[in-house]
């Protein structure tokens, strides 16, 4: 029996075994990525699929800069809106709702609301902001009108160049279906599917509410509220009191044209010691950005370091089963400033 004959006869067998093993591994991976290791109604189970990394992610940096370049609905600082950073906020002890006010004027001194409300995604986004109970532990009741508002927002977002780019990337990475209707369903589950944030309550939260609207925990502390439009509108109506910007000790101050800020504020009397938000970016940009990070990992917490435009950011996403629990940016540096 020749050596060549043995190799040629065994090669198909080995190949089939390798293909079978690869298919099995891929099936397990896809099951994990679909969230089957999580209870769909609980936040309290963890996955061990992929460890989060603090190393700079070059691929995501490239993708997110494409999204940034496509974000034609991003507002321009100094033109479409003006902010006043004022003083640097101080330390607030855990559990305390007492914060020294280092900013005696609002953060936003001007926003072009006419332009804001003329853009479809912003208009639908604003319609969603009054649809939720403020406190966790109180079950959400979603009306037919609110369901329709959710769908209209998803429809508007999916039509943008930003989300089209994100969708193509996710399809290429086999994390999203190519069919637009199925992709909308996936986005809906990630951002609007209700779940239990409080162990003892009903379905009281969703990703959109926590990240973009904000919540209170037992009416004692502010959680979420990482969106600049909601911050501006709540500040305008007297519900938010801006206390000052946050920066590490002995580091220089952020600029008033920065698109990412760390802030201290109170919301309806409850203090948030530090909250990180994009400023001026469109709703579709944030939804696309955090959806990609969410779908590229099944870890309970994922953080990636990227450079988007001039900003070196740590982007953080927590999951709750098949939905986002929270997501926010952390500014590490800007224009070569170490903040």
Description:
Mean pLDDT is 83; it is low at 1-8 and 10-54. The protein has a domain at 76-293. It is 37% helix and 20% strand. A hairpin with a 2-residue loop joins strand 10 and strand 11. With 339 residues, it is α+β, with helices and mostly antiparallel strands. Helix 2 (58-70) runs antiparallel to helix 6 (161-172), helix 5 (144-158) packs across helix 7 and helix 6 (161-172) packs parallel to helix 10. It has helices at 3-33, 58-70, 113-118, 120-128, 144-158, 161-172, 180-191, 207-213, 228-236, 283-295, and strands at residues 81-83, 108-111, 215-217, 221-223, 240-245, 260-267, 270-278, 301-308, 311-320, 323-334, 337-338. The strands form four sheets. It has a four-stranded antiparallel β-sheet. Strands 5-6-7 form a three-stranded antiparallel β-sheet, with helices on one face.
């Amino acid at each position: 029996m020749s050596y060549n004959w043995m190799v040629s006869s065994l090669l198909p067998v080995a190949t089939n075994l390798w293909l079978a093993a690869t298919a099995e591994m891929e099936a397990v991976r896809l099951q994990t990525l679909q969230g089957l290791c999580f209870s769909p109604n609980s936040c309290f189970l963890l996955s061990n699929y992929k460890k989060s990394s603090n190393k700079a992610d070059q691929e995501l940096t490239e993708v997110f800069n494409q999204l940034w370049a496509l974000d034609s609905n991003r507002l321009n600082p100094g033109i479409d809106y003006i902010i006043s950073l004022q003083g640097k906020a101080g330390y607030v002890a855990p559990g305390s709702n007492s914060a020294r006010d280092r900013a005696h004027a609002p953060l936003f001194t001007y926003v072009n609301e006419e332009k804001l409300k003329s853009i479809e995604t912003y208009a639908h986004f604003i319609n969603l902001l009054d649809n939720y109970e403020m406190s966790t532990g109180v079950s959400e009741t979603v009306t037919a009108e609110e369901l329709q508002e959710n769908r209209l927002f998803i429809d508007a977002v999916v039509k943008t160049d930003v989300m089209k780019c994100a969708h193509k990337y996710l399809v290429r990475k086999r994390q999203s279906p190519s069919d637009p209707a199925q992709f909308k369903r996936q986005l809906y589950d990630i951002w609007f599917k209700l779940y239990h944030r409080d162990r003892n309550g009903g379905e009281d939260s969703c990703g959109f509410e926590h990240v973009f609207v904000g919540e209170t925990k037992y009416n004692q502390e502010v959680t979420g509220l990482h969106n600049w439009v909601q911050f501006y509108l709540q500040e305008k109506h007297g519900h938010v009191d801006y206390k000052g910007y946050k920066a590490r000790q002995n580091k220089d101050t952020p600029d008033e044209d920065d698109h990412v800020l760390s802030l201290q504020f109170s919301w309806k009397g409850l203090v948030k010691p530090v909250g990180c938000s994009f400023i001026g970016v469109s709703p579709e940009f944030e939804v696309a950005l955090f959806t990609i990070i969410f779908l590229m990992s099944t870890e309970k917490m994922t953080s990636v370091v990227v450079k988007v435009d001039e900003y070196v950011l740590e982007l953080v996403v927590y999951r709750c089963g098949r939905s986002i629990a929270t997501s926010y940016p952390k500014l590490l540096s800007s224009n070569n400033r170490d903040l």
